[in-house]
Specification:
transmembrane, mainly alpha, 14 helices, two-stranded antiparallel sheet, 317 residues, membrane
Length: 317
Amino acid sequence: MQVPHALVGQVFTWQQVVFGLFFVFCLTPWASPPIALALGLVLAQTVGNPFPTHTKQLTHKLLQFSVIGLGFGMNAHAAVQAGKQGIAFTVVSIFGTLGLGFLVGKWLGLGRRVVHLISCGTAICGGSAIAAIGPVLGAKDEEISVGLGTVFVLNALALFAFPPIGHALHLSQNQFGLWCAIAIHDTSSVVGAAATYGNQALEVATTVKLARALWIIPVAIGTALAFKQPGAKIKIPYFIFGFVGAMLLNTFVPAAKPLGPPLVGLAKIGLTVTLFFIGAGLSAKVVLGAGIKPYILGILLWLVISTGSLLVILHTA
């Protein structure tokens, strides 16, 4: 039970005070995406998140606005080049992951819907893909929770692990950006890891990842047919078009150029706060509630796609 305390004339619990201090720190220049995620995880495992409903609602919107803001710092010509380079990786990795997920899930004896959710989350864009595919699949709330819990834990690991691995292997900015976009599940962690590595890596990773996210649409249609869900509603990630619009303005409209640096700065702060919110939602209950088998599936798929794509990138990009 949280005991309320008076502070500047208002009554707050210790949960709210700690949350507020961490939140304010995430707005400062000293915070980075990995630090923000770590603070969220510390909060979740200690005093707990006092605003779970609010942070869950804000995370999705804040990520969308942050991604659109990043578009004001990107060049359309460079983005087209990055998109061309990443399309072959995208197609092969998506269908390869879905096929491998089906086989491994069958071997583990997991439910067909849980397997498909985790496979889609790994193949396309993590939590966004699971949230979009779940209703089309007719998945139950607990099945969606298992899928989300699995990919969010692996996202957290990737955000910390990928930049040191990239430096150890002397990956170029382009190579690291491609690797992040293919091998990290969620857009938030892709952008967070790439931003830590460098601006060019960020540009490549964001462009390729958002192009990859558009595969939600054909995969959702295929899911509706495979699982016999006629008339199922498909959620289209419209914010991607906002990102493209911002990028086109920054490239072709000289008057928009001065807006770029402040908007990109705000977008990076928004991304940092987003990762703090995500970490704050990963309580022990969420982490352990999925059981061991979904994690085995998620880890195997993640290891295959991350090592396989890294080997290809090292030899071709």
